[in-house]
Design brief:
Number of helices: 8
Number of domains: 4
Oligomer: single chain
Number of strands: 8
Distance between the termini: 176 Å
CATH superfamily of the largest domain: Band 7 domain
Order of helices and strands: HEEEEEEEHHHHEHHH
Helix content: 55-70%
Strand order of the largest sheet: 3-2-5
Shape: rod-shaped
Structural class: alpha+beta
């Protein structure tokens, strides 16, 4: 085989090999011809015009993430420091979207700079309308506000903001210290209020218990006094009935009823003697004394009959 034939075959083989190109999974190839956009290549083996169609770039359609650190100032002039993670991706694999991604920015570095500065500006604009005491409670609102503002802009660039996570929000050391003191004082205040309420409840319950005990004791004493009075009244009633029956029997026997009084007198003296337990009781035991006592008892009996 002659040398020209070998050269011709070699050139043909090179041309054929140059007509094939491979695009990796998760990327889209962008072809240009003479510096002008030509078409896109999907993942896998693709054909192109050798030496004329050139691969301008390979656009990744996978999710990408970057970390950000920036500062903002609140309405009351407090510095707030943010650490955030941004997750974004190409909007879709359509040809117009891929063209925007490939040609809107000069390079990836320019796109990232524009993206980061746009997000920082959105966060700063939102924070500037809030006070520092509100920022920690508005983490979700900040993210929603940024996504609402950026979605339309990113779509014109061919990208989509998937998520923005504010992982850390901090303040100057002086503000952090003062906030810690405020939290500590609020906790002490709440603890004091709880202790006061507990002490009030304890003393209230103790007072209620004492009051109920006094009421129960008074009620018991009242019932005991009533029962005692009723017992004395019944005793006296029974004594009166007994004396009345004894008097009737004495009269039916033609005896003097004063003998009843004399019997009661002697029984009383006997009772004093048996149950005195060493105590001294002075009684006039003379005949005159007995007569005097009998006269008083009879006089009392006469007055009762009148």
């Amino acid at each position: 085989m002659s040398i020209p034939m070998i050269v011709l075959i070699s050139v043909g083989a090179l041309i054929i090999l140059a007509a094939f190109t491979t695009v990796q999974q998760g990327t889209i190839g962008v072809l240009t011809m003479f510096g002008k956009y030509r078409r896109i290549l999907h993942p896998g083996l693709n054909l192109r015009i050798p030496f004329l169609e050139r691969t301008f770039s390979r656009v990744s359609i996978q999710n990408r993430a970057i970390e950000m650190e920036f500062q903002a100032i609140t309405q009351d002039q407090a510095n707030v420091y943010f650490k955030a993670m941004l997750v974004y991706s190409v909007l879709d694999a359509n040809e117009e979207t891929i063209k925007n991604v490939a040609f809107k920015f000069m390079d990836q570095r320019s796109f990232l700079q524009a993206l980061i500065r746009t997000i920082e500006g959105s966060v700063r604009g939102f924070v500037a309308t809030k006070k520092q005491a509100e920022i920690l409670l508005l983490r979700r609102e900040i993210v929603d506000d940024v996504k609402e503002r950026l979605d339309q802009t990113l779509e014109t660039w061919g990208f989509h903001l998937i998520d923005l996570q504010l992982n850390d929000i901090t303040f100057d050391a002086e503000i952090t210290t003062s906030m810690a003191r405020v939290v500590a004082s609020n906790n002490l205040k709440a603890a004091a209020e709880n202790e006061g309420q507990a002490l009030l409840i304890t003393k209230t319950k103790a007072a209620e218990a004492d009051g109920n005990a006094i009421k129960i004791a008074a009620q018991a004493e009242k019932e005991a006094s009533q029962l005692k009075g009723q017992g004395i009244a019944l005793f006296r009633e029974e004594v009166a009935k007994g004396m009345s029956e004894a008097a009737e029997q004495m009269k039916s026997a033609n005896l003097d009823t004063s003998l009843i009084l004399f019997s009661m007198w002697t029984e009383a003296v006997k009772e004093f003697a048996e149950k005195g337990q060493g105590n001294v009781i002075f009684l006039d035991g003379s005949v005159d004394g007995m007569e005097k006592t009998m006269q008083q008892m009879m006089a009392s009996d006469i007055l009762k009959k009148k």
